[in-house]
Write a structure and sequence with these properties.
Length: about 475
């Protein structure tokens, strides 16, 4: 299977059959009808021989049935076509009957070597799929493959954003594992695509990026909020796999959205700052429409994503931003991991961390949220602008589509197809970011623009106009 099929591995002719078999297997596992699961998965791997997860799940069903040799064969087949989630494998109760088998132990002993081989194969797969237009590189410390369509300086800016998130996570969220740990994490491939390739990878509208954890591939449309969000998912997923836990989406997306908007304070410490998402949470609070915490924390994945998803994301971000404000974010996460089996909703972790009943903590949160400042966003634009129509898609900045208001004075000025990279040193990779920057300005202000024009980088001043 090509690494870059992103879950669309089922051919159209067999797609419906494969999905039916997968659902049948899932239901059989749920009801512990392991023979039915085995039968469905045996048919599925014949239909999709390159599906690593199907082979792995077949190994689980066979192990449950006591068919040890067949289970080990299926597990080796899974690894042969790309399964390398060894942290999950080490915790998986379905594979408990295999733990003492020499073949199973051999897989664990070869863990690091297998991961490195798969990481190299994934990078080669990227080269074959994307070709010479892309630049390819590796990060040995973070165990990342890169395939970038961006100019060299913008690629370095993307690397800096990844390092920034890694440092923030290490200090505030979950410490990174020892690089010499023999139980290494899997390599992840980060793709910074052309706009045309992004649509091919992520056909859904309104999605800035994805992290496909099963195939270990991150694709993002910009090197700002979307890259930070998706890379936090990489780090969090690695952490969950080491713990043998799967945190609910309110935790996963709350942490992902937290790092979308970070700023360094006067003390040199980076913190989450108000954004378009906290605007949503603040307005929900003002309208009396916040989801009660116990309800929010208990939402299953489907309800979280399909019922007022923007509201759920916004509230989850606000919860973690408040914990950071209290200086309790890292402590809450440690308590949450320790109490996860007892209470995966997180309520117990809140009460242990803050030493108060949840109802009191929630009241204090709502009081704090009422004072979080609203910032300019695409729904409520800043009263000033640069006099140009902008669009996303460049990845490293915003494209000038049209010049609407032209300054009277002579000198360098914005032109159509210019890409604005930063305003007064503040990167602007999305329309939300440019609105937040413009919200701090007044008509008549002059700002320093960093612009990419073709292959050239330019810096010049521009006038800010009343919108």
């Amino acid at each position: 299977m090509s690494l870059f099929m992103l879950g669309a591995a089922v051919a159209e002719a067999s797609g419906a059959d494969a999905r039916t078999l997968q659902r049948r297997a899932n239901e059989a596992f749920r009801t512990k009808e392991y023979a039915e699961a085995r039968d469905a998965l045996q048919r599925l791997v014949r239909l999709r021989p390159e599906d690593a997860l199907a082979h792995y799940n077949l190994a689980c069903a066979l192990a449950r049935l006591g068919e040890t040799e067949a289970a080990l064969d299926a597990l080796e087949d899974a690894i042969g076509v790309g399964f390398i989630n060894f942290h999950h494998m080490a915790h998986d109760k379905d594979l408990a009957p295999l733990r003492g088998e020499p073949r199973f132990q051999a897989v664990l002993l070869g863990w690091g070597e297998l991961l490195d081989m798969r990481g190299e194969a994934d990078l080669e797969s990227a080269r074959e799929a994307l070709g010479p237009r892309y630049h390819y590189e590796r990060d040995e410390m973070l165990r990342l493959n890169f395939a970038s369509s961006l100019p060299a300086e913008s690629f370095e800016a993307a690397r800096a954003e990844i390092d920034r998130v890694a440092a923030y996570a290490d200090a505030r969220l979950f410490p990174q594992p020892d690089p010499d740990d023999p139980r290494a994490d899997a390599w992840v491939t980060v793709i910074l695509p052309t706009p045309e390739d992004f649509v091919r990878f992520v056909p859904a509208e309104g999605v800035g990026g994805i992290y496909d954890r099963d195939r270990r591939i991150l694709v993002t449309s910009d090197i700002g909020p979307s890259l930070r969000h998706e890379f936090l998912h990489v780090l969090h997923h690695r952490r969950m796999m080491r713990l043998g836990q799967t945190h609910p989406l309110w935790v996963q997306e709350g942490l992902g959205t937290l790092v979308e908007d970070l700023e360094e304070g006067p003390d040199g410490v980076e913190r989450a700052v108000p954004s378009w998402r906290t605007n949503i949470a603040r307005r929900l609070r003002d309208a009396g429409r916040l989801t009660p915490w116990r309800t929010l924390f208990a939402l299953d994945d489907e309800r979280f994503m399909r019922t007022r998803a923007n509201a759920q994301y916004a509230q989850a971000r606000a919860v973690f931003m408040d914990l950071e404000r209290r200086g309790a974010l890292a402590e809450w996460l440690r308590n949450y991991e320790q109490t996860f089996d007892e209470d995966p909703t997180g309520v117990l972790a809140f009460e242990r961390t803050l030493g108060a009943p949840l109802a009191q903590i929630e009241r204090e949160h709502r009081d704090w949220l009422s004072g979080v400042p609203l910032v300019a966003d695409v729904m409520r634009r800043a009263p000033v602008w640069l006099g140009v129509a902008l669009s996303g898609g460049a990845g490293d900045g915003l494209v000038v589509e049209d010049v609407v208001t032209r300054p009277r004075e002579a000198g360098e000025r914005l032109r159509p197809r210019d890409v604005i990279l930063s305003i007064d040193g503040r990167p602007v990779r999305t329309t939300q970011e440019v609105e937040r920057v413009m919200g701090d300005l007044e008509p008549g202000d002059r700002v320093l623009l960093d612009v990419r024009r073709g292959t050239r980088r330019l810096s010049f001043e521009a006038l800010v106009f009343r919108r």
